[in-house]
Specification:
This protein is an alpha/beta fold.
Length: 360
């Protein structure tokens, strides 16, 4: 080949992505042809992916009539949902099963992300668009972080480190699953709920919550962007940002300043306790409007004392008593055992005793 500028730029390339069905027809021929005519291999890595099959594992074909029209699916669910449904749960080299249930799940995730972003934008007072960027939005003062802030930043930091390693190893399915779980569970279901009361306050706590929300959402969008490019670009443009597009923004990097293993461990104990209380209340059909006192017996009282505001908001507690293991406790209680603690709830505050005896 002639040594043109295009040739110098594009050859050799870094990665070839291809299916296993054309390794002999195409990949090997490109390899030996490239070496023969240039003396260099044409690509450093070859990622061999599977073929998209139907829900029963059959190859899509006209004769079976089991193919799909991607444009019809995109009209109904959106391009990002289709892309996400095809990347979730895949392993390199193995075939992918096209399942409508996965499309529904991916579409629900896109809605969850959109609604969470609306909440962040509704409470974000830093202005939007490139012209109104405030550098302080990304320069979070670690000394002003509250308990839940340290936890979510540490979890995001762990995600960035692990997901980047997955991406480097072409483990796309694992990469997508980790970001999906973090976005849905830690960020949407927990952190957003935990910080809501801070938006009714004025002062540093409110500002810090805004900063952390925008920081976490912005970096999560960057992690999602490779396989959900459209919704992430749309949301990112509305957030404080620098540059013209999320596509050419810098990829998230691990920041040791935000790593806090204690915050992760302790917050997980509080979350497990809240889940345990909710499960007991659901089993007994206690409505969220009916609040009850809780007693937490533990050898690590300082951890659960930090979580008292969260128990009141998310576990529907009227009051929270943290008792050092061995202290006096009430009688006639419902108990739940969780890592690091036993939680007691007075039965009479939860249910009508006579009705509950009859139900049992």
């Amino acid at each position: 080949p002639e040594q043109t500028e295009d040739f110098k730029y594009f050859y050799p390339t870094s990665t070839l992505v291809t299916g296993y069905d054309i390794i002999l027809f195409w990949v090997i021929r490109m390899m030996f042809s490239g070496i023969e005519h240039t003396g260099e291999v044409p690509f450093k890595d070859v990622l061999i992916h599977g073929i998209v099959r139907d829900a029963q594992g059959r190859k899509m074909s006209k004769s079976l009539g089991n193919g799909i029209d991607p444009l019809e699916i995109i009209d109904k669910y959106g391009t990002d949902s289709l892309r996400l449904s095809l990347i979730m749960g895949i392993t390199p080299g193995n075939d992918i099963r096209y399942m409508p249930e996965k499309l529904e799940s991916a579409s629900n995730f896109a809605n969850k992300l959109w609604n969470a972003s609306k909440f962040v934008l509704m409470n974000e007072q830093f202005g939007d668009g490139e012209e109104n960027v405030q550098s302080s939005i990304m320069d979070i003062d670690v000394s002003k972080l509250e308990y839940e802030d340290k936890w979510i930043l540490s979890k995001l930091n762990t995600l960035i480190k692990e997901a980047t390693a997955n991406l480097d190893n072409f483990d796309m399915g694992v990469y997508a699953q980790k970001i999906y779980d973090f976005t849905w569970n830690e960020f949407c279901d927990w952190y957003i709920e935990l910080v809501k009361p801070r938006f009714f306050e004025e002062g540093e706590s409110n500002i810090t919550a805004q900063q952390v929300l925008v920081y976490v959402l912005s970096n999560t969008l960057k992690l999602l962007h490779p396989f959900m490019p459209f919704i992430t670009e749309e949301i990112w443009q509305a957030l404080p940002h620098e540059g013209k597009s999320i596509m050419i923004s810098s990829f998230p990097v691990y920041n040791s300043e935000y790593k806090d293993e204690n915050a992760e461990k302790e917050m997980q104990m509080i979350m497990d306790a809240i889940k345990g209380i909710r499960n007991i209340r659901n089993e007994m059909n206690v409505p969220p409007s009916k609040k009850a006192g809780i007693f937490i017996i533990t050898e690590e009282p300082e951890i659960f004392e930090n979580g008292i505001p969260f128990f009141k908001k998310l576990a529907y507690a009227s009051e929270v008593n943290v008792i050092k293991d061995g202290g006096s406790v009430p009688e006639n209680v419902v108990s739940v055992v969780v890592p690091g603690a036993e939680i007691l709830m007075p039965l009479d505050e939860l249910v009508d005793r006579a009705k509950e005896i009859e139900r049992l």
